[in-house]
Amino acid sequence: MEGVVVKVLAGVITVNTPNGLINCTVKGRLKLDDYPTAGDVVWVEVIDDLGVVTKIYPRRNLLDRPRIANVDQIFIFMAAASPEPNAYLVDRLLVIAEYWKLKAIIGFNKTDLKKCELPEIYRDIGYDVYEFSLLEDGAIDVLREALKDKTTVLAGPSGVGKTTFVNKLLGEQRVTADVSEKTQRGRHTTRVVELLRIPEGGYIADTPGFSRLDVLIDDERTLWRYFKEYQNANCRFADCMHLKEPGCSVRDKIHPLRFQSYVELLKEIEVMKPW
Length: 275
Ligand SMILES: Nc1nc2c(ncn2[C@@H]2O[C@H](COP(=O)(O)OP(=O)(O)OP(=O)(O)O)[C@@H](O)[C@H]2O)c(=O)[nH]1
Ligand SMILES: [Mg+2]
Ligand SMILES: [Zn+2]
Fold this sequence. Notes:
This protein is an alpha/beta fold. Helix content is 28%, strand content 25%. It folds into three domains: 2-56, CATH 2.40.50.140; 62-206, Rossmann fold; 220-271, no CATH class.
């Protein structure tokens, strides 16, 4: 039967199937070609109560860090306050989303504490932006709709409320899971990727990652392509980086905060270059 890999840990592949979660091994031959990863759509055969993955269906995409296949969207999760929202981090995650051609949605939690001006900037560019407080009942109903039947990767800084959100979405407390994750982080450098099933359908991964940009974008002259404002703006210069070039008409179309991020990200890519 067909299923979706939700976790790969110590050689055990956990697959969500119409019959529930099944722990599987892989067929020997398959092991050589490729190995299942979270998010993979696979074919599972159950032989003597033992699940075996016999086929991996072609992937629509495959992210590394976190390693997840067939991702539909990135949910960039921030807080309106405590911690203060970070436009640079939002922009960097948006570049990653654009690079992978993923839909990006942006959420600002903790509106009970404060309202901030960032949401308007991203709405103006054309992104779906949500403002809410997880302390309020029904605050995430509109988000449930946005995540339904999709595979969503949650990304955002520490303390913004990601785990609180996931617990609400799933209707269960994952306190123990979080503790074991933290123990793991002490022993290993990476955490286990796990896709969690959303009751209405779809999957969500609350997982850190998305650190380096330079592995994705090795030519900084292409960075502007991942800024939505620049995609549709026509610059009359072929080789323009839309920085300080005289006569560049694109440079003015971007919000100062976004431009600042663009300049910072250019530096970040340059610094990481091995030459
Ligand atoms: N005031 C307020 N506090 C919130 C809200 N949502 C979550 N919190 C609190 O913010 C703190 C951090 O929440 P977490 O869900 O642990 O944040 P996280 O993003 O998972 O953090 P990491 O796991 O460290 O990445 C907790 O004390 C929550 O109770 C909110 O809407 N308003
Ligand atoms: Mg958390
Ligand atoms: Zn230009």
